[in-house]
Amino acid sequence: RNFIQNERLKKEIDLLKNKLNARDEIDLENQRLENLLYFKQKSPFKLTAARVIGRSSDSWSSSIIIDKGSYNGIRPGMSVITYLGLTGRVIESQEHTSKILLISDPNLGVSAMVQRSRQEGLISGTLGSYLIMRYLPEEPDIKIGDVVITSGLNGTYPKGLLIGAVVDIGKEFSGLSRYAIIKPAVELSSIEEVLVIVQ
Questions:
Q1: Residue 167 in contact with residue 103, Cβ under 8 Å?
Q2: Residue 139, SS3?
Q3: Residue 49 near residue 87 (C-beta atoms within 8 A)
Q4: 19 in helix, strand or coil?
Q5: For the segment 87-120, what is each residue's pLDDT rounded down to a tens digit?
Q6: Is the pLDDT of residue 64 over 70?
Q7: Cα distance between residue 83 and residue 74, in whole Å
Q8: Which of 53-57, 121-125, 159-163 is predicted least confidently?
Q9: Which of 44, 24, 28 shows the shortest CA–CA distance to 195?
Q10: Contact at 8 Å (CB) between 131 and 184?
């Protein structure tokens, strides 16, 4: 009898744990959506919020699928952000879904600059958790901890979007130029919602 009672209590405890987990999950989602909404209201851009519904499974590209598409005015070339910073760019749009290439993908180049010194360079992904900023001069005005933003140079991305912060500086093999390692502001491996700049 005790055994049956214990089993019943265990089941009840498991059920309560599941309920609490589900509530925590809802609370976290609400917090994220509130942040997105607040950011959307304050942003100078026209933004469309979307949910991430898929990720690239291969190891040589870095992309996600979102649940909004051409029906919602989303077109290839549009910039994708979260309230924390730049996330990527739309590369394909179907009627109700779109594919986003993330900034961690080596095929995506972003014209960028150091916010403090206005030092310019080009950022690309490494398929890892860091980005690389190249084409810096031999004596660049860049320090560890510097904030890096989009420069708006080639018009692909609006100017001033946060990309990340400098965590290391190195010298190219030729010795004639430098590069910087950037930690993205957005945790790219765990994004669940994004904002597409639709203007």
A1: no
A2: coil
A3: no
A4: helix
A5: 999 999 999 999 999 999 999 999 999 999 999 9
A6: yes
A7: 18
A8: 53-57
A9: 44
A10: yes
End-to-end CA distance of the chain: 68
**133, amino acid identity:** M
Q: Tens digit of pLDDT for each residue in 149-162?
A: 999 887 889 999 99
**Coil, strand or helix at 143:** coil
DSSP state for residue 129 in the 8-state scheme: S
CA–CA separation, 180 vs 103, rounded Å?
Answer: 15
Contacts (Cβ under 8 Å, ≥6 apart) of 59? 127
CA-based nearest residue to 76, from 84, 60, 88, 58? 88
- Nearest CA to 185 out of 167, 199, 169, 158 is that of 167
**Per-residue tokens: 190:** 């765990």
The residue with tokens 């976290």 is: 28
| pTM as predicted | 0.81
Encoded amino acid at 132, one letter: I
138 to 60, 130, 151, 175: CA distances (angstroms): 31, 22, 20, 8
Which of these, 54, 58, 49, 37, lies nearest to 80 by C-alpha position? 49
Query: In Å, what is the CA distance from 24 to each residue of 17, 69, 73, 129?
Result: 10, 30, 33, 27
